[in-house]
Amino acid sequence: MRWGLIGASTIASEWMIDAMRSVGDGEVAAVLSSSAERAGSYADKHDIARGVADLDDLLSDPGIDAVYISTTNEKHFPQAMAAIAAGKHVLCEKPLAMNVADAIAMVRAAESAGLVFATNHHLRNAGSHLAIKQAIEDGRIGKVLSVRVFHAVFLPPHLQGWRINNPGAGGGVIPDIVVHDADTVRFHLEEDPQEVAAMSAASGLGEGVEDSCMSVWKMPSGAMVQTHESFTHKYPGTGFEVHGTEGSIVARNVMTQKPVGEIELVTGAGREILPFSEHNLYARAVAMFCDAVAGKGRPSASGVDGVKSLAVAEAVAEAARSGSRVSVDYGGI
């Protein structure tokens, strides 16, 4: 696979470039930045053949098979639509777009063009979450009654920027982290949240966007979900708990890009630590994307998965604004 990077981003440099190069004969052929100078310096630093400042320049390269989009959120829709029109497969960062309607348009355009379109939801690729899902599927905790997600973290200074002060670019903890939690809950329970209630707050970390959020979701099965997301918490650690009629799964420090954490299964028989694979999350996602392009299986998180996680985040944001319970609108997808 020959990749074009749309966005000279931190996530690409820290995680995705190595993941792309680790799969088969993967090559990163070009990188796009809005600044020609930044594109060139980024390309030099990461041993990428070309740095460009014009999207058409990147997309007109017939040797590029797929693009990875990691620009600010408001750019995802036009850039993805241009890539699809150019015949490129697309792996896009979350949230897919600024609204569900645009996200659906992206997914439908790729379907019509016969291209693979995927969302870079990394957590469902973690060995920890694969082990949790397997335990649920094996019936080890019985019928799921509730889920609690602890994803309140401290956003590192080098990642703050637009995320804490630019609503026009899609800043705020809801589009940044709630989408991940929505996808992870959907992955484990294999059902879509129906209704949400929420409150959000801004502590002063930035301006114009929320930096903390708590919400409760109703699931079709009757299970309830409680989530807490924040950019301002330095010390709590993260967690994911699933409680059922026959047991509980309590996972700590698993809402992360790294293959770390601990999972404890608690049942009437006692306590048991569940082992899990420590593979690279992003390498698995890239490998499954490449397989899908080759006609073997599907991406780990499809475009539809991205639409649905965005729909939940939109409902949480509206519930927090209105103070009312909000039904999740998936736009008919």
From TrEMBL:
<keyword id="KW-0560">Oxidoreductase</keyword>
<dbReference type="GO" id="GO:0000166">
    <property type="term" value="F:nucleotide binding"/>
</dbReference>
<dbReference type="Pfam" id="PF22725">
    <property type="entry name" value="GFO_IDH_MocA_C3"/>
</dbReference>
<dbReference type="Pfam" id="PF01408">
    <property type="entry name" value="GFO_IDH_MocA"/>
</dbReference>
<feature type="domain" description="GFO/IDH/MocA-like oxidoreductase">
    <location>
        <begin position="130"/>
        <end position="250"/>
    </location>
</feature>
<dbReference type="InterPro" id="IPR051317">
    <property type="entry name" value="Gfo/Idh/MocA_oxidoreduct"/>
</dbReference>
<dbReference type="InterPro" id="IPR036291">
    <property type="entry name" value="NAD(P)-bd_dom_sf"/>
</dbReference>
<protein>
    <submittedName>
        <fullName>1,5-anhydro-D-fructose reductase (1,5-anhydro-D-mannitol-forming)</fullName>
    </submittedName>
</protein>
<dbReference type="InterPro" id="IPR000683">
    <property type="entry name" value="Gfo/Idh/MocA-like_OxRdtase_N"/>
</dbReference>
<dbReference type="InterPro" id="IPR055170">
    <property type="entry name" value="GFO_IDH_MocA-like_dom"/>
</dbReference>
<dbReference type="GO" id="GO:0016491">
    <property type="term" value="F:oxidoreductase activity"/>
</dbReference>
<feature type="domain" description="Gfo/Idh/MocA-like oxidoreductase N-terminal">
    <location>
        <begin position="1"/>
        <end position="121"/>
    </location>
</feature>
<comment type="similarity">
    <text>Belongs to the Gfo/Idh/MocA family.</text>
</comment>
